[in-house]
Amino acid sequence: MEAVGQLTGGIAHDFNNMLTGIIGSLELIRRRLARGNIEDLNSLIDLGVTSANRAAALTHRLLAFSRRQSLDSKPVEMNHLVNAMDELLQRSVNESIHLQLRMASDLWTAEADPNQLES
């Protein structure tokens, strides 16, 4: 029963992080629109859409797990995956924290489910 609690807590935490990205993007868009600043809204919209897609992928994985379906493994370039998550990760932490990514140039492609790695 303790393992189920830990699993549920982890899933709730992941989903909450994704919702934070969506809500944060929408709030920033609202503030900019209120000030009449419509510049660079596309990046905020993209961030919200990315977070929503990750939330959808999480629910897909939950459904796959509940049906015991296999995950969608494919060749994944880890540097590309981590770079794609950079802005979301930065917005998920306190503003006083600045994340710096250091990528290895010689990484091999890995066979994995990218949605699983993102969570």
TrEMBL record:
Keywords: Kinase, Transferase. Residues 3-71 form the Signal transduction histidine kinase dimerisation/phosphoacceptor domain. It comes from the Bacteria. SMART domains: HisKA. It catalyses: ATP + protein L-histidine = ADP + protein N-phospho-L-histidine. GO terms for molecular function: phosphorelay sensor kinase activity. The lineage of its organism: Bacteria, Pseudomonadati, Pseudomonadota, Gammaproteobacteria, Pseudomonadales. This is histidine kinase. Its EC number is 2.7.13.3. The keyword Mitochondrion does not apply. Pfam families: HisKA.
